[in-house]
TrEMBL record:
It comes from the Eukaryota. This is SET domain-containing protein. InterPro entries: SET_dom_sf (IPR046341), SETD3_SETD6_MTase (IPR050600). Residues 225-248 are annotated as: Disordered. The gene is ga18316. It comes from Eleusine coracana subsp. coracana. GO terms for molecular function: protein-lysine N-methyltransferase activity.
Length: 484
């Protein structure tokens, strides 16, 4: 985007905000890196704005109720909403699509400011996506794209085309642009879906504001023209963001009214990062970030996920008995292996002193009956014992299953079952199965494309390296187990 064009869009948007009642009291919106826009503080002194740096009327919030009250798309969507054919989130997406494609939309100054594309894998070309083939990110992307394409084909495409061909009176019209009719594409739906999930906020709205009848308030252009809207001037409430919490708040005049929280977009405020994530929130996101495409060269916190397919478990011998044993152990068929585990392995970087200290803390007897010796490699196992116990259970032979029984007189604990299975089976079978899983994981991550897409390459390279390193540890353990 040329600098002049970007500046023209920004000025048009700022004029549009002002014309529709927004007030940038202690901030401004400016362009920043990567052709995006952000909110910047302009307050001379802390507290000079009484904690309110931006005020945006609720009239400008794109919420499900705002969509249902729109004179153009509201009547048709209200009927579908009452039938349960669409939900609130889809209402907002449909509105975004229709206004983006509609010639002369009064929302154009705002829509022009929004990103037109995104960097996540849903937006990858087929060639770029092929570079990820075999990874968890690839499978998740394919499933999500298929789901979105089904919704678009079955519901969205025809409905948006219908919404584009009505005028303010509700009569159907033909819309042409340069003698070419407007075509609704899947990319339009993907854009609206991405905009909603990256920018939607929880907005507190007064109950009286949410259940209004239709009226004739006006949405204002930056140049002073008007468009019919269903939001009355008397309900011209405001949504604020404060310097302390940087979040959407009710106007003080409505503090005594009951509020309803709704999802929607608030032009202006959605260019602001509202607050830093807490440690607990980051902890919840961490696994998703690592497993679904978090890209960092030589990432010290990278994870590898190894899992045994449920479908394969159902096909093994004595699957019913083994599934019962797994249930008692409360075991999961997947395991997250952080890179840091490798530091304690055979090929790790821990010092001899640290390993000696670890040996001193090891249990004196690994066998509950003392009939199976403590493995010499016990302190070098980098794989969680819980997951190894799951693999031992799956790898058990018929004669081994007969030796593992549960008491009918009392409830058997998960630890007792794990100890009994290890006593009978040892490590050889589970380590052999683990090696097979890691080899499959390593083979999955082989490059199948030469597309020079950095994110794909870095993500795959990290996964390939981790799979190779954990495979080396498992193969060495398997060799030692066989010798013992």
């Amino acid at each position: 985007m040329a600098a002049d064009e970007a500046d023209a869009k920004l000025q048009s948007f700022l004029q549009w905000l002002q014309a529709n009642g927004a007030d940038l009291r202690g901030c401004t919106i400016r362009g920043c890196v990567d052709k995006v826009y952000g909110v910047f503080s302009t307050a001379v002194e802390p507290g000079s704005t009484d904690g309110v740096v931006m005020v945006v009327p609720l009239d400008l919030a794109i919420t499900p109720m705002r969509v249902l009250q729109d004179p153009l798309v509201g009547p048709r969507l209200r009927a579908l909403f009452e039938e349960g054919a669409v939900d609130g989130r889809l209402l907002v997406m449909l509105f975004l699509m229709a206004e983006r494609l509609r010639p002369g939309s009064l929302w154009k100054p705002y829509l022009d400011m929004l990103p037109s594309t995104f960097g996540n894998s849903l937006w990858f070309t087929d060639e770029e996506l092929a570079e990820l083939e075999g990874t968890t990110l690839y499978r998740a992307t394919v499933m999500q794209r298929k789901s979105l394409q089904t919704v678009f084909k079955d519901k969205v495409k025809g409905l948006v085309e219908e919404l584009l061909h009505v005028d303010e009176s509700g009569r159907p019209v033909l819309i042409f642009c340069f003698n070419i009719s407007i075509e609704v594409l899947f990319e339009d739906f993907l854009w609206a879906n991405s905009i909603f999930w990256t920018r939607a906020l929880n907005i507190p709205c007064p109950r009286s504001y949410m259940f209004l009848g239709s009226s004739d308030d006006q949405l204002t252009r930056a140049d002073g023209d008007h468009c019919s809207s269903s939001l009355p001037a008397s309900a011209h409430q405001e949504t604020d963001i404060t310097a302390k919490s940087s979040s959407v708040e009710e106007n003080s005049e409505l503090s005594n009214h009951e509020s309803i929280w709704v999802e929607g977009l608030v032009p202006g405020i959605d260019f602001c990062n509202h607050s830093k994530c807490s440690d607990s929130i980051l902890g919840l996101f961490k696994e998703l970030l690592y497993l679904y495409g978090f890209v960092l060269d030589n990432n010290p916190d990278d994870y590898l996920m190894v899992h045994y397919p449920v479908e394969a478990l159902r096909q093994v011998q004595s699957s019913d008995i083994k599934m019962k044993l797994l249930e008692i152990q409360k075991g999961e068929l997947r395991c997250l292996l952080p890179r840091s585990l490798l530091d304690n392995g055979f090929f790790g970087v821990r010092s001899g002193e640290e390993n000696d200290n670890k040996k001193k803390t090891s249990p004196s007897s690994f066998s509950w009956s003392s009939q199976r010796k403590v493995p010499s490699y016990l302190n070098k196992i980098v794989f969680p014992q819980e997951f190894l116990s799951i693999l031992r259970t799956i790898a058990m032979q018929e004669h081994e299953l007969e030796q593992v029984g549960c008491s009918e007189d009392r409830e058997t604990s998960d630890l007792e079952v794990q100890n009994a299975i290890w006593e009978v089976c040892g490590d050889h079978g589970s380590l052999g199965l683990l090696v097979d899983l890691l080899r499959v994981k390593s083979d999955e991550n082989k490059n199948k494309s030469k597309v020079n897409y950095r994110s794909c390459i870095v993500y795959r390279r990290g996964q390939k390296q981790l799979a190779r390193l954990f495979l080396r540890e498992a193969e060495h353990l398997l060799e030692l187990s066989a010798n013992e």
